[in-house]
Design goal:
Bound molecules: ligand GNR, nickel (II) ion
Shape: globular
Number of helices: 3
Number of strands: 7
CATH class: Alpha Beta
Structural class: alpha+beta
Largest sheet: 5 strands, antiparallel
Oligomer: single chain
Length: 167
C-alpha cells in the first residue's frame, strides 16, 4: 500500500471529467487500497480518484465513527435524489476551507463494487452529502464551485497566500 499525494485546488487536473472503469483488474484493486489508506491517513471521510491524479470513476467513502465501514463505488451514478440539506463541507483538495453547501437530502446511487458486482444504495445525511461531493469530483467539480463568485475569489487568494508561505 502507499500514500498518494492529493492535488490541491485550483489545480486544473481537478477539473477533468473522469473516465469509466473498463475492467476491475489488479491496478484498480491497488488504486482502491492506496486511496483508502490515503483517505484514512488524511484523515478524510471520502476520496475520489481524480484527487490523486487518476482520472477514473472510482470513489472510497467511510463515514463511520470508528472507520470500520469502507465503501467502494466504481462508476457510480445517482439515479434518484430528493429533499434538501445544508452541510458544512470541507475537501482534502481545499485544505482549511469549510463552507455550507446545499445538496439533496437523500440519494439513490447505483455503482459496482470491487468484485464488479452492481449494487444500489439509498443514502441520507452525511453519507448522501459525501456521495454527491465525491461524484462531483468525478465530473471535475470541487465543492467551492457551488459557492458564490465572491467566496470563490476569496478562497483562491487565501490558498495562493498559503501556497507562498508553505513553498
Ligand atoms: O473529509 C471530507 N470531509 C467532508 C465533510 C463534509 C462534506 C464532505 C466531505 S468530503 C471530505 C474528503 C474529500 O475531499 N473528498 O473528496
Ligand atoms: Ni473533496
Amino acid at each position: 500500500m502507499a500514500l498518494l499525494p492529493i492535488l490541491r485546488f485550483p489545480d486544473p487536473r481537478l477539473q477533468r471529467r473522469a473516465h469509466s472503469v473498463a475492467e476491475i483488474d489488479d491496478s484498480i484493486r491497488k488504486l482502491v487500497a492506496d486511496m483508502a489508506e490515503t483517505m484514512y491517513a488524511a484523515p478524510g471521510i471520502g476520496l475520489a480518484a481524480v484527487q490523486v491524479d487518476v482520472p477514473l470513476r472510482v470513489i472510497v467513502i467511510d463515514v463511520s465513527e470508528d472507520k470500520s465501514e469502507l465503501r467502494v463505488f466504481i462508476d457510480p451514478d445517482i439515479v434518484e435524489r430528493s429533499g434538501e440539506q445544508v452541510c458544512e463541507e470541507g475537501c482534502l483538495s481545499v485544505p482549511g476551507v469549510y463552507e455550507k453547501v446545499t445538496r439533496a437530502e437523500r440519494v439513490r446511487v447505483r455503482a459496482r463494487d470491487l468484485s464488479g458486482e452492481p449494487f444500489e444504495l439509498a443514502a441520507d445525511g452525511l453519507l448522501a452529502v459525501c456521495i454527491q461531493h465525491e461524484i462531483d469530483h468525478l465530473d471535475g467539480v470541487v465543492f467551492v464551485e457551488h459557492l458564490s463568485r465572491l467566496k470563490q475569489t476569496r478562497i483562491r487568494s487565501r490558498l495562493k497566500k498559503q501556497a507562498r508561505i508553505t513553498a
